[in-house]
Amino acid sequence: MKNKEHTRQVRDTVVKKFKARFGCKKISQALNIPRSTVQAIILKWKEYQTTANLPRPGRPSKLSAHTRRRLIRDAAKRPIITLDELQRSTAEVGDSVHRTTISRILHKSGLYGRVARRKPFLKDIHKKCRLKFATSHLGDTPNMWKKVLWSDETKIELFGNNAKRYVWRKSNTAEHTIPTVKHGGGSIMVWACFSSAGTWKMVEIDGKMDGAKYRTIPEENLMESAKDLRLGRRFVFQQDNDPKHKAKSTMEWFKNKHIQVLEWPSQSPDLNPIENLWKELKTAVHKCSPSNLTELELFCKEEWEKISVSRCAKLIETYPKRLTAVIAAKGGATKY
């Protein structure tokens, strides 16, 4: 009882001296107690207007405040660290807890486990070029982006997106399985383009793509697509910096046809809005459950044509946000 009474008197004295505008250092020296103790008493008084022991809201935590802060700090500094590694690090300092306890602590601090986005590796030269592109085009008018014909190629696998599904089932059973095929069961390569006015027809690429084969795509499709999408004669064509796209003969063809090609920074799929349409296309196609490559090609072309004009227009309307994101990331990867 004497010890409790003494502790209460010390706490009250600390609060009185603090109200009298004494600093923590002077209070610590006057009462011969650690400064951290003085700070803790004052902090508690500020928050609860009392220094008495308050009833606990529940079972005391197994981890000390110091260990909790360390867990949060480690997870923030090393986002790829696993729960097992965090569990071992806490055990090393004498605090052995379950993984769910660690997970709960991280959740309270706003940290959640998420699948990491896959982004192209960016060197300093790539970031510099991306930043230059974004700053130079940030002030372009909306009409300028409406004149751009965006293009790209992509590979679509027969069973690629069908392989991963979540199902409810009992433990140690093999019910509700999904059949898989080696190497995705085959795939097709397609080329397509779009503008704010909508999508144009899709072109399947037979065999291996090379510079000569790529050149036939704009030769046979570019002028017709620009005409159907009503881009006018002074439209701008976008393509990435794939060596097949930048072949001398191909670039000479653009020059002879007086087609302006948008100067494009390397490693920048996030700056091409057609990537959003590719993702939506692949999801829609695999919902159709094609059983062979012929059906896969048919569904791809059908779903591509179903993409609404409003969806295309929205992607182009919000394009300046991508440029702003690149500038904010100083040329680095963005969420797009």
Automatic annotation (TrEMBL):
GO biological process annotation, one example: DNA integration
Domain spans labelled Tc1-like transposase DDE: 148-295
SUPFAM superfamilies: Homeodomain-like
Ranges where the Transposase Tc1-like domain occurs: 68-138
Every Sleeping Beauty transposase HTH domain range: 1-51
InterPro entries from the UniProt entry: Homeodomain-like_sf, HTH_SB, RNaseH_sf, Tc1-like_DDE_dom, Transpos_IS630-like, Transposase_5, Transposase_Tc1-like, WH-like_DNA-bd_sf
Molecular functions per Gene Ontology: DNA binding
Signal peptide start-end: none
Short name of one Pfam family: HTH_Tnp_Tc3_2
Domain of life: Eukaryota
Family annotation (PANTHER family): SI:DKEY-77F5.3 (PTHR23022:SF135), TRANSPOSABLE ELEMENT-RELATED (PTHR23022)
Name of protein: Transposase
Organism this protein belongs to: Oncorhynchus mykiss (Rainbow trout)
